[in-house]
Write a structure and sequence with these properties.
By secondary structure, the chain is of the alpha+beta class. The strands form seven sheets. Strands 1, 2, 3, 4, 5, 6, 7, 8, 9 and 10 form a ten-stranded mixed beta sheet that branches. A six-stranded antiparallel beta barrel has the order 14-15-19-18-17-20. Helix 7 packs across helix 8. The radius of gyration is 35 Å and the shape is globular. The N and C termini lie far apart (91 Å).
Amino acid sequence: MDANQLRRAFTDFFVERDHVAVASAGLIPHHPRAPLFTNAGMNQFIPYFLGEEIAPFKRATTVQKCVRIRGKHDDIELIGRTTRHLTFFEMLGNFSFGDYFKAEAIPWAWEFLTEKLKLDAERLWVTVFTEDDDASAIWHEQVGVPLERIQRMGEDNFWEMGDTGPCGPSSELYFDRGPSFGEEGGPAHGGEERYVEIWNLVFPQFDRQPDGSLPPLPHPGIDTGAGLERVLSVIQDVPSVWETDQLRTLIAAAERLTGRRYGDDPETDVALRILGDHARSMTFLINDGVFPSNEDRGYVLRRLIRRAVRQAYQLDVERAATPELVGAAIEVMGEAYPELVTNADFILSTAGREESRFRATLRSGLAMLEDTLAGASEVPGEVAFRLHDTHGFPIELTREIAAEAGVGVDEAGFEAAMAAQRQQSKEAGKGRLTAGSDLNDLYRSLLAEHGPTDFVGYTDNEANAAVLAVAEGADPEGKGGRLEIFLDRTPFYAEGGGQVGDTGVVETDSGRARVVDTTYALPGLIRHVAVVEEGSLDPGQTATASIDAERRAAIRRNHTATHLLHWALRHVLGSHVKQHGSVVAPDRLRFDFTHYGAVTPEQLREIEDLVNGQILDDADVSVDVMSKGDADASGAIAFFDEKYGETVRVISAGADSREFCGGTHVSRLGQIGAFDIVSEGSIGANLRRVEATTGTTTLERLREDEGLIASAAGLLKVRPDELVGAIQRRLDDQRRLEERLRAVQQASLVGEARTLAAQAVDRIVVARRDELAPDALRELASQIRQVDGVETVVLGGSPDGSKAALVAMVPKGAAKGAPELVSAAARMVGGGGGGKNPEVAQAGGRDASRLDEALDAVRGLLGLGTRPVLDSQRAGGLPPS
């Protein structure tokens, strides 16, 4: 049985037992309590286990793609060195949401393994939680496992989602690979390589409280997981996961790439396994919307790619490695995950560009690290930082290479250097209302009692509704009077999919509240954040909910324009362009997307023309509600950072744009009005941002621009169409005047230089000259150096009375280099600088009040005594030497 057959057999087995086959979730989880990457089959079901959402089915089965890198389950350092650890793997799972429990889950696991997969029952061992007598009894009395092959274990057999919330015992199935793999004694006492865990049954049955107590859950659940690769290694009777059909094929691709043969050398085998494993991980991460970067998920992907490239380089691979590795991964996994084949070009190009960037600095970085490791006991933090910052070495890669040489890394020093560089502002919060945790029970009870809020805003701007609840909410502005209003139905759109929440009014017979934002308190439960303007609003009343229709119309124009912009970007720049975030507001739209280079002015013009051409064609905008599978088949674009249900809404904006979207849109493209791109630029590695306007906002901007042009033309006393020529003439005049001024200044500096040079002591001039810009001060120093009899010049001055400027020039081979002279003085005036040129150095500082003291320090370094300071120095006159 191969991997594809195992997936089908598992799914069919549980579908026959009334489970719904649910597609694998993406590797980017959506729940706030989920890990960085999807790392278990239950991740997509967290809201059901926590009771935040009602599961649409009682039983489910999945084959879930998983990545375990970074966090509690970071296996990357073990990859290639054990028989079972992987960064990417697949988890076979069956789940119950308050339906069946241990009495069904345990026998089904045994039945699948022994009857469907024909595993030898005598070689299966079971572990249960120390206190779980129920599970032990079912295994022994119902299934028939001998007591001597049922072992009780402690923490390893108790699952917890967190410090509080659902938790419960677990039971694991192990396969005994035989004496050649290690000591006997079962999973609890025997060899780890001998007893291989192949199935984990988790029984969430308690609800841990803050005080540590464990009351039972109202509806216990089942969460099971069986590692596909580990099961394959057993049924295919191979010594490790690396010899299973999928991974062995990927290792074979690594063999072809490197020219090395698997099995010839243990360390080479490790490298080949890493290449095979990382090929799969990088392929799936890129496919699921992760882009290489220095932050969060993007950093993990960058680390994977660069780790694989380094392994290939160590095996003397000079050509690009990722195309062959990724190509093999797509071929191996494409039948189970056809989206890999669809996105093959994008995946290959993304991995290839990242490899190209790293290879450009890999050789020099390795040489630098090898020099450091020679005879060292520790890699200094500053070196690790330079490797990261200049050569693109993730700290984990530096740590790994150093460990291979038996050397540690000064991680504290590295973090300090990173922190110093990282001084960049974090996005400030937008003042969104956050209700206290005591409201969570209210949210859940509203959702359980009344169900999701009925959103009628696709067709109506106003609706009559019942007030379900009114709660006092936190006010980020500290002004008081903010409420959270919950209605049974509403025309207010809750922020989502990049579209901002609606504003408007909720009014009852006894009061009126102005809605300042609309968000989701829980998925499906719309919260109206409001300020009371009159009277009060109470639960049970009938309310009239009215959105700001003019504001919504502007938002609709911008949202549909965002879809057209996305289409135009892909049309002009290529299908690799993926949405990476957006903001759809009434006054503007912002669209972030993946792209590996700047967008040229010509491309921007073409994009803008394409969008406006679609608007002028005035095609219909249609809305279709269909299954996610049908939507995918229709070619509609979905977004990796959005979570979709089984039924989705597809917006077709004209003939070319078709996207999943739950937002509000115009009915015809002509309603958008004029589309104008305001700005385009980089917001991070391989990330770009476009901002644009539509409709009346574009007209207002046009009028503002026309007004500015008219005002500028009036100042220059020309017609608007003559403005450019008039400005050019003024610039030419200014340029000629500046050239004449520079000539006068140059002549003045030459004369001043001779005067200062005449006061040299031991061929040295140290002087202060204020009211000169740093470049002019440097020019004066250069002129002094050109006078016979002068070798060393150090000048200091204040261009503006507050800041300090310093310059030093010394002859070649001087005992005191220019950087040494100028940096000593710069520190005294609260600055720095100096550079690496031993003959010329320049620096600055914030405190001109200590200039004289700083110049005296330089005189001391040069063996000169201090000099009195004349008032003429501060007026720009000639100081003494």
